[in-house]
Amino acid sequence: MPSSADGCPCGSGQSLTQCCGRFHAGEPAPTPEALMRSRYSAFALDLTDYLLSSWHASTRPAELAPGPTTRWLRLEVLESGEDGDDGHVHFRATFREGRRFGALEERSRFRRESGRWFYLDGSPTVTRLRPGRNEACPCGSGRKFKACCGRGV
Prior knowledge:
alpha+beta, 3 helices, 4-stranded antiparallel beta sheet, 35% strand, 16% helix
């Protein structure tokens, strides 16, 4: 588990405390994008209680199994916006499970109730990534795959 001074998993460049950590601690996220980023960070940090509490009651599952085998590597927000109490975020999240890499792309819907945003639902697609040794690493480091996440694969 990263310390509160570590960089936020959402990739904002801020510390976890300054970024998503404050939403994990109870502060309402001001926008659908901020909530989505905090949910991505919660997946990366395995904060299942936060994921459930930020999920709209009409679509929330009864429980959420922890995902310790998935390592979330990078988040890209492709588009986001809001119209009154309805919001949307289109994002791509790169992950690693064992020796395999993949990308989850989703168009998510959000709803604001009593001043708080909640994740409503989304249309996800998952693509397996097969980076070549000399291609850019899927984690977003800017290094070649063989010199980054591809070592030992």
